[in-house]
Amino acid sequence: MASFRDTLDFRALRFAVAFPLLLAVGFVVCAQMLRNDLPNPVAVMWSADGGSSFAPFGAYVAGGAALITFCGWAVFLQAVSISRPVVMRRVMMGVGLMVSLFITTVLAAGLVGQSGLADARESHVDPIVLAMGSGAAVALGVVMMFAFKPDPRWTREDDVALEEELRLLEDPDLARDTLRLWVHARSSVFVMIIVSALFPAALIAVAVPWLGALVAAAALIGAGFLFARVRADRGGLQVFAGGIVRVLTVPAVDIAGAAPADVKAADYGGWGWRHHDDATAMLVSSGPAVVVRKLNGGRVALSAGTQASADKLAGVLNRAAHRAHGDGQAQQPG
Fold first, then answer.
1. Please, where are the H alpha helices in 41-196?
2. What count of other Cβ atoms lies within 10 Å of the Cβ of residue 94?
3. 174 falls in which pLDDT band (50, 70, 90)?
């Protein structure tokens, strides 16, 4: 039982179960207040000419209350498990509120649109109730996403963070030998992409939508290669284009040395991920970079953002190479 309790956020569970139920009860009470002003039967579906399908008042109200309850539960309960990411839990809590309130709004608009009529075939969904209720549903759902604070629990991410702290305590130099940084092209480059590609794509889409979408997608993919995430540690170097696609991997044992440099992208074939002669490069602009020499004679060049970042990155890679080669020699039989 204890393990089951540890998997759920009971504060969120109470709200997830109670809110749709209370909302359904409120809908039933308000519907009863309108009952004497409604036709019998009431419309449950509408066309441009008015009501097109009908049901007894009791069936409409009971079915609507059940719909509010079960749809609300179906979404809200996705936010209860603490194994899910915190952001997902917040989103699902907000979406659950939106769904519950929107269904209630539609049902209420259907009843209000029939109030005072003798024949449900003359009715329409009340647009004011529908518009105001839908707007409130979206607004309150967004507020819930920001206001909901999941119960603090020890998670796998906490285990990883604890392991990192313990490793730092055991090896104080580990932080000095680890570097994470993002590099990107100048803002003027992205402005140029918008002007030269996205604007024309919007105009093309007016006449040929699929071609406009293709041009826009190509521009966005190209812009993605002007962002890069760099990760360097004792294991070596990894570079991810757009922060996602790994385009460069250099193990520490393959590094002969690394040095900061002021490079021109044209010398390595241009911006982005390139193979040029004996070099592989991931450059988002000309300027501060690190050039890595490999033991097999190859080179790797990557943008470093600033001169200070280039100096630090080169230092991390040189220490990683020295440690890897020293460990390798230590493991060789004497």
1. 57-76, 86-112, 127-147, 156-170, 187-193
2. 22
3. low
Q: In the block, which residue shows the tokens 């943008």? A: 303
Higher pLDDT, 332 or 126: 126
State the chain's maximal CA–CA distance in angstroms.
102
Q: Nearest CA to 304 among 321, 320, 328, 286? A: 286
* Peptide bond preceding 251 in cis form (omega within 30 of 0): no
Q: How far apart are CA 304 and CA 287, in angstroms?
A: 8
Nearest to 287 by CA among 179, 187, 188, 185: 185
Q: Judge whether 315 and 304 are in contact, CB under 8 Å.
A: no
Give the 3-state secondary structure of residue 184. strand
pLDDT 10s digits, 233-255: 888 888 888 878 888 888 888 88
| DSSP states of 281-312 | EEESSSEEEEEEEETTS-EEEEE-SSHHHHHH
The answer for residues whose C-beta is within 8 angstroms of residue 67's C-beta and 6 or more apart is 103, 107
Give the bridge partners for 257, in sequence order: 293
Instruction: Spell out a b/e string for 306-331, using b for 16 or more CB atoms within 10 Å of the CB, else e.
Output: eeebbebbbbbbbbbbeebeeeeeee
**Ramachandran region of residue 116, left (φ > 0), alpha (ψ -120 to 50) or beta?**
left
Predicted structure pTM score: 0.51
Closest CA to 250 of 324, 176, 185: 324
| Residues 75-97 pLDDT 10s | 999 888 887 777 888 899 999 99
